[in-house]
Amino acid sequence: MAIAFESEHPSRFEKFTDGIYLSDTEGRPTYSVTFKFNARAHVSSPFTERAATQASRRYLLVSGHGELRSVCRLYAQMAENENEPLKAFLFGWSAVEILVSKVFVAFENEFMSPLLDGAQARLRQRFLSRVQEVMKDKYRLVEKFTCVTVALFPHSADTDVDSYLEQFKRLKGLRDKLLHGQDVPEDTLPVHELAGLLRRYVLAFLERTARSSEASD
Questions:
Q1: Strand ranges (DSSP E) for the chain?
Q2: Taking every pair of C-alpha atoms in the chain, what is the biggest distance, in angstroms?
Q3: Cα 134 from chain centre
C-alpha cells in the first residue's frame, strides 16, 4: 500500500502468468498453454528514485499505525474492483468513513482547544466537556470531516479546504443516493476522484503524525 499511495489513482499488482507442466522420463517439459485475451487502457508513469524513497518512508509510517489497516485494505479493494465501479466506490467510501472517524477521535480535543483560551479557563473546560459528552454520538460525518480538515491542513488556503469540503459533500450525496436505492449509473461514479480524496487525507495524516513524532524525539 505504501507504493499504491504514491500514485494518484489506486494501484495494484497484477499476476503476470502461471501454469502447469509435465516432465517426461528424460526431464523434458511438456507445457499446457491456454490463450485468453482482453483489453484495458492504462496510463503508466515512471517509478523514480524519489518515489521509491517516499514509498519506503511511507511503508514505515503505515506500519506504525494499526488503525489504518482497514483503510489500506479497502483502498486495495477499490483497485481490485476497478471493472465494477459500484463495488469500487462503496469500498472507497467505507475507507473514507473509517479514516474520518478515526482521525476525528484523535484531533477532536485539538479542534476544540481554542475555546479554552481566555478568562475563566476552568469554567470553559467544564462547558466544553459537557458539550463533548452530549455530542459524543451526535456528530454528523460532515462535521467530523470539517474537524479533520482543520487538523490536517491548518496552513492551506481557504479556497483549497473549501473545495475539499464541497468535494466530500458531493461524494457523500452520491453515497446517500445509493444507500436509498436511487438510480445512479455505475459508469458515472467518480471512483478516481474518491480515491484521490482518500489518498490526500491518508498522506496528510501520515505526514502530520510523522512531524509530531520527529518533534518529540
A1: 21-23, 29-31
A2: 91
A3: 29
Percentage of the chain beyond pLDDT 90 is: 32
What is the arithmetic mean of pLDDT over 172-179?
94
Distance, in Å, from the CA atom of 87 to the CA atom of 89, rounded to the nearest integer, reads 5
Beta bridge partners of residue 30, listed in sequence order: 22
DSSP 119: S
> For residue 20, is it left (φ>0), alpha (ψ between -120 and 50) or beta?
beta
Per the CB < 8 A criterion, the answer to whether 55 and 3 are in contact is yes
pLDDT band at 69 (very low <50, low <70, confident <90, very high): confident
Query: Phi/psi class of residue 81: alpha, beta or left (left: φ > 0; alpha: ψ in -120 to 50)?
Result: alpha
Q: What is the pTM of this model?
A: 0.69
Domain ranges of the chain: 47-216
Predicted pLDDT at 60: 57
The identity of residue 101, as a single letter, is S
Identity of residue 16:
F
Return the closest-CA partner of residue 168 out of 190, 188, 145, 152.
145
For the chain, the distance separating the N- and C-terminal CA atoms, rounded to the nearest angstrom, is 27
Is the predicted pLDDT of residue 166 greater than 50, yes or no? yes
Q: How many helices (H) and strands (E) does the chain have?
A: 7, 2
Q: Which amino acid is at 137?
A: D
- As given in the structure block, the three cell numbers for residue 61 are 509510517
Q: What is the mean pLDDT of residues 99-119?
A: 76
